[in-house]
Amino acid sequence: MENQETPEEKSVSTEPSEPQNQRLTLSESQLSEIQDGLKDEQNFHLAIGVGALVTILCAILWAVITTTTGYQIGYMALGVGFAVGYTVRYAGKGIDQKFGILGAVYALVGCLLGNLFSQVGFAADYYEVGIFEVFSVLSFGDVIDIMIETFDIMDVLFYGIAVYEGYKFAFRQITQEDLN
User: Fold this and answer.
1) Which residues share a beta bridge with 13?
2) Considering only CA atoms, which of 101, 113, 103, 97 is closest in space to residue 51?
3) So where are the chain's domains?
4) Is the pTM of this model over 0.85?
C-alpha cells in the first residue's frame, strides 16, 4: 500500500511528456501555492477587452462569409465559440469560473451579431446602399424583428455548441511547467 495518498496530499494529472500519463503528488500547501501563483497571473480586464474585439471580428467575418456565399453556415458558430474561448484563455490566463462565463457570453454575442451583420449585409446588397446606411435606420425593435424572422431551430444547436466551446476553451490549461 505504498501508493496511498495521505489526506494532506492530492494527485494532479499533468499533460504527458512521454507516452504514459504521469501522476504528481502535491501536498495541500504546495497545491495552494501553485493555485495562488496561477491566480496572480490572471488578467480578467485584458480578457474582457481582447475577447470583445475578437467577438466583433468573428461576427464581421461571419457576415462577410455569409453574404459572399449567400448561405448561412451553422459551422460558423463553432468557429466563433472556439476563437472567442481561446482568446479569453490566451489573454486572461484564467482559472476562475468567470473566465469560462465570459467566453460563453462572448460566444453567444458573437453568433447573434454574426447573424445580425449578415442580414444587414443582405439588406445593403438588396437596396444597393452601404451597410452603415442600413445600420443608421435600424431601431432596437427592428433588430429584434430581424433576429426573430431569421431564427431557425438549428441555431439553438449551433449556438449551444458555440457557448459550450466558449466556456470550455476559456480556461488556462495547466502544464507541467506551471507545476514546477
Assistant:
1) 23
2) 103
3) 9-40, 43-168
4) no
